[in-house]
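PROTEIN SPECIFICATION:
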Amino acid sequence: MAKKQDIGSRLKRIFTGAEFDKAIIINTGSKDSNFLYLSGFTSGVFEDSVLIADKKSMTLLTSVLEYDIAIEQAPSSMEVKCVSSGKEQWNEIKKEIGKDTVGIDYGFLPYGYAMALKKNIPGATFKDATERFADAREIKDGYEISLMKKAVSITKESLREIPSYFKDNMTEKELRARFEFLMGEKGGEGLAFDSIVSFGQNAALPHHMPDETKLKANEFVLLDVGARYQNYCADVTRTFLFKPDKSTMKYKRMEAIIDTVKEAQALGLSYVKDGADGMTAHTEVSKFIDSARNGIYKGRFIHSLGHQVGIDVHDGTGLTTRSKVLKKGMVVSDEPGIYITGFGGARFEDDVLVGKGHSSFL
């Protein structure tokens, strides 16, 4: 694993060529992902804390509740200031910003907060920095990739072990609880997203949430899951067959679906490389599934092939119906699926590190 975060390079990516001199990130009841990206903090709540950055340094305004934990984690480029009231915080923001041109992540910051900034600091000019942050975060550095590999490893280890816990009449909720416990045992620090666990016909619903459905023999078991590790996400899907009865037509139909999806995923991976258009991968996989086995799955692949993954599980567009040039260092999901209402479905998903000549699963 890479030994340390290169915060300086992250600041440089954001500010080089930007239309603003400083950027301000205001956490609300939850943390802005860009706060995590620039601070590198992995502990603490930092509710209503404010991070102000320029191309070389940062200032964090936080409360006494978070001050000590901020000091422990602060990179050398960050000054941490403890503020005791909203009034004091606004005074510090005015001091830091003055009449600068300031970038704001309007994609995260609620309207009321943005209006308060403009009202309380009338001398500053505010610009939308949403795309600048998104572009900077697209290319993962070595440290980020090492964390993502760990998150993926925890998830995949748990997926390899989970079939040993399958049993007749267990519910989707029970299996979800068992799986999430496994990820915690293996070092996961939280969930990348709400775990999807689907039995039987429910596997035809890509975003089905676990319920009281009970597991029966000769059925699909689909898990779409991911660990979070040091702020970074994994997103992995596997489809299993529980107690398959190989003598039945149902088994043969399920097996054919799974085999086709696995072939589609391998095809998708072959189109993912530096300089390629992610839309091409999605289009070619869609055409493959539509024509497979004499067209019996036509129209059964009903979502995009993949998205970017990082601090957010959906960290940006990737392999979709919209044009997106892939770049070395991006991480995208490759997740084809086939869904047949009333019968079930299958999806296989891995996170792909985009490379020059070829790409590979994390």
